[in-house]
Write a structure and sequence with these properties.
The protein is an alpha/beta fold. Helix content is about 50%, strand content about 15%. The chain is built from twelve helices and eight strands. The structure holds NADPH dihydro-nicotinamide-adenine-dinucleotide phosphate and (2S)-3,4-dihydro-2H-pyrrole-2-carboxylic acid.
C-alpha cells in the first residue's frame, strides 16, 4: 500500500557514490523534496553535488540525526562503529536506520545502537543512479512491515527492490553490489577485443555498452532463462558458437561463479562472520 511520505525527512551519513545514487532515486520519485533531505560528510569533496540539487548539507553527523527521521548510513564498513558511537546519544526510537555497509550485520548495528533502535540492512548497487539498481534489504528485530513498506516507497525509483532473509544480503553483495563491476570488466574486455580486430576504441566502447544494456533488458523483460536466450543467438556452425567456445576455453563460467563466491566470502569476512 502506498504511504504518504508527506514531510518525511531523510538523512544520509556519508556523501559518496552510494549515498548519491540512493538520494537521486529518492528525489526522482518526487515523493520527498530536496529541502527535506540532509547529507553529512567530513570534507567538501562530495557535498557539492548534493547542494546542486537543493539537498541540505553539513559536516556534523549528529545534526543529520537530529533533523531527520529516516537515516541512511552510507559510510565504508570500517567507519560504521565510530559513526554510531558518535550519533547514538541523539538516536531516538522513532528513527528508522538503514545501513548500506557491505558485510555489517543487523546484530552488529543493533549492538552499536541504543536498545530498541529500528534498523534495516540494505544492499544497493551503483545503477541506482540511473534508476536501474538491484536492491535487497532485510529487517532488524524492531523494524516491522510499516518500516519495510516505507523503505520500498522511498526506493521505488531506484530500481528492483526485494526483501529477503539476512543470509542473502552478503550473497546479493557478491552477485549484484559487486557484480556490476564484473559486467564492466566484461564490457571493457569485449571492446578491447574489437579494438584488437581494428575497430576504433570510442565506437567499440559505445557498442559494448549498448550490447550489455540490450542483453540485460531482454533478459529481464522476457523472463527467459539466460541459457535459452544464449541458444537463440547461436546459429549452428555460425559465429556465436565459435565465440562461446573461446569463452568456455577461457573458463568464463567458472571465473564468474568464483567471483560471486569470493565477493560473498569477503562480505562475510567484513562482517566478522
Ligand atoms: N560503491 C558501491 O557500488 C556500493 C557501496 N556500498 C556500500 O556503501 C557504503 C559507501 O560506499 P561508497 O559510497 O562507495 O563510498 P565513498 O567512498 O564513495 O563514500 C564514503 C563517504 O563517507 C564519508 N565519510 C567518511 N568518514 C565519515 C564520517 N566519519 N562521517 C560521515 N561521513 C564520513 C566520505 O566523506 P568525504 O566525502 O568527505 O570523503 C564519503 O562521502 C559502503 O559501506 C559500501 O560497502 C554498497 C553497495 C554498492
Ligand atoms: O566493493 C565493495 O565493498 C562495495 C560493496 C558492493 C560494491 N562495492
Amino acid at each position: 500500500m502506498e504511504q504518504d511520505l508527506g514531510e518525511i525527512k531523510v538523512g544520509f551519513i556519508g556523501a559518496g557514490k552510494m549515498a548519491h545514487g540512493i538520494a537521486q532515486g529518492i528525489l526522482l520519485s518526487g515523493k520527498v523534496c530536496p529541502g527535506n533531505v540532509m547529507v553529512s560528510a567530513p570534507s567538501l569533496n562530495n557535498l557539492g553535488k548534493f547542494k546542486d540539487c537543493g539537498v541540505r548539507t553539513t559536516h556534523c553527523n549528529t545534526e543529520v540525526v537530529r533533523v531527520t527521521r529516516v537515516l541512511f548510513l552510507a559510510v565504508k564498513p570500517h567507519i560504521i562503529p565510530s559513526v554510531l558511537q558518535e550519533v547514538s546519544a541523539v538516536i531516538t526510537p522513532q528513527h528508522i536506520i538503514i545501513s548500506v555497509a557491505a558485510g555489517v550485520t543487523v546484530a552488529t548495528l543493533e549492538r552499536l545502537l541504543p536498545t530498541g533502535s529500528m534498523v534495516l540492512r540494505l544492499m544497493p548497487n551503483l545503477p541506482c543512479v540511473v534508476q536501474e539498481g538491484a536492491l535487497l534489504f532485510c529487517r532488524g528485530t524492531r523494524a516491522g512491515p510499516g518500516e519495510a513498506g516505507l523503505l520500498r516507497e522511498l526506493l521505488a525509483s531506484c530500481g528492483l527492490v526485494e526483501e529477503g532473509p539476512e543470509a542473502f544480503i552478503d550473497i546479493h553483495t557478491g552477485l549484484s553490489g559487486s557484480g556490476v563491476a564484473y559486467v564492466y570488466m566484461l564490457a571493457e574486455a569485449m571492446a578491447e577485443g574489437a579494438v584488437k580486430m581494428g575497430m576504433p576504441s570510442a565506437l567499440a566502447n559505445r557498442i559494448a555498452a549498448q550490447t550489455v544494456l540490450g542483453a540485460g533488458r531482454l533478459l529481464r523483460d522476457s523472463g527467459q532463462h539466460p541459457a535459452q536466450l544464449r541458444a537463440d543467438v547461436c546459429t549452428p556452425g555460425g559465429t556465436t558458437i565459435f565465440g562461446l567456445h573461446a569463452l568456455e576455453r577461457g573458463g568464463l563460467r567458472a571465473a564468474a561463479m568464483g567471483a560471486v563466491e569470493a565477493a560473498t566470502e569477503r562480505a562475510r569476512e567484513l562482517g566478522g562472520k
